[in-house]
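Hi C.,

You asked whether I'd gotten around to modeling the 163-residue construct. I have! Everything is below, sequence then structure, no commentary in between.
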Amino acid sequence: MTTNSNNLSKTRINRLKAQGYLNQSDQEICELAFGNRFAFITCSILVGLGVATANILILSTMTLIAFLGIVLPYHPFDYIYNYWIRNLLNKPRLPQRSQQLKFACIIATIWLSTTVFLFYSQLYIAGYIAGTLLFLVALIVSTTDFCIPSSIYNYIFKIKINK
């Protein structure tokens, strides 16, 4: 694997382990960190745009993308990263999505479907509240690597993260 001179803090490494990177070394996690964030950043931007404009088409498309993140081995944006962006950056391929991140996609699919329904039903205040909360959850993982749904998954299934 390519060596990464930018080492991550132990806190950030543990946050990535909590997302399911349990079989990778700390150095491998450092090398995968940006690639892992790529899907979250892209989703955050598109969800934020969809919520800000109450755009049902954008939010419905994001619902489909989140659903595909459940059923495909990789998140749809991981395919873009693995087949195009990583080559430009000389980074390793992202592994298949973990159960923690698939669980996050389940939550996102339900949350986005609810937000779409609220906007479709012209319940705009509720739609903006639901959508903004989802955007904030996505923004947190995009900027800090702390994935709330992954933490919930680990708690429910009693998965211990080595600290």
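If it helps when you're writing up: Confidence is low (pLDDT under 50) at residues 1-5.

Thanks,
B.
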